[in-house]
Automatic annotation (TrEMBL):
<dbReference type="Pfam" id="PF04536">
    <property type="entry name" value="TPM_phosphatase"/>
</dbReference>
<dbReference type="InterPro" id="IPR007621">
    <property type="entry name" value="TPM_dom"/>
</dbReference>
<protein>
    <submittedName>
        <fullName>TLP18.3, Psb32 and MOLO-1 founding protein of phosphatase</fullName>
    </submittedName>
</protein>
<feature type="domain" description="TPM">
    <location>
        <begin position="3"/>
        <end position="119"/>
    </location>
</feature>
């Protein structure tokens, strides 16, 4: 069901944003989209983060964008490595920017902007490592119910 919330073009644009953001960083970005979130949104994001094995990146620099579209709830969750180096209000600034676009119904653009903003910080703190840098997590969007 949640896969139908975004067109093929929207999904491709989001995946392209992930790939573009990851070009300059060893960090990993994933997007998980569901229709509903029946628990506290951060609790659900932590569970998804764990399910997607995002905590297993070498530098603990994974970032999850979790979105429950029907319930209009979302969270951004960074792993330990990235959280230790970004400014304290970093995730909140991204969330505020994304929320403004979401309120206008611009979910795809909100995700793309958030991904690029996170990618900039990942690139600053976890630069691309050349040939030794592997894509540790899939770039494709994961979907829940």
């Amino acid at each position: 069901m949640s896969e139908k919330l975004f067109s093929t073009a929207d999904r491709e644009a989001i995946v392209n944003a992930i790939r573009s953001a990851e070009v300059s960083t060893s960090g990993e970005i994933q997007v998980h989209i569901e229709s509903r979130c029946k628990v506290e949104v951060l609790d659900r994001a932590v569970k998804v983060f764990d399910t997607l094995k995002m905590h297993q990146t070498k530098d603990r620099n994974g970032v999850l964008f979790y979105l429950a579209v029907v319930d209009k709830r979302f969270a951004i969750l960074g792993d330990k490595g990235i959280n230790e180096v970004v400014p304290e209000d970093f995730w909140e600034k991204i969330k505020e920017h994304m929320a403004g676009l979401f309120k206008q119904g611009q979910f795809t653009q909100g995700l793309i902007d958030g991904i690029h903003m996170a990618g900039e910080q990942l690139g600053t703190h976890f630069p691309y490592q050349g040939d030794s840098d592997i894509n540790e997590l899939p770039d494709e969007i994961s979907f829940g119910s």
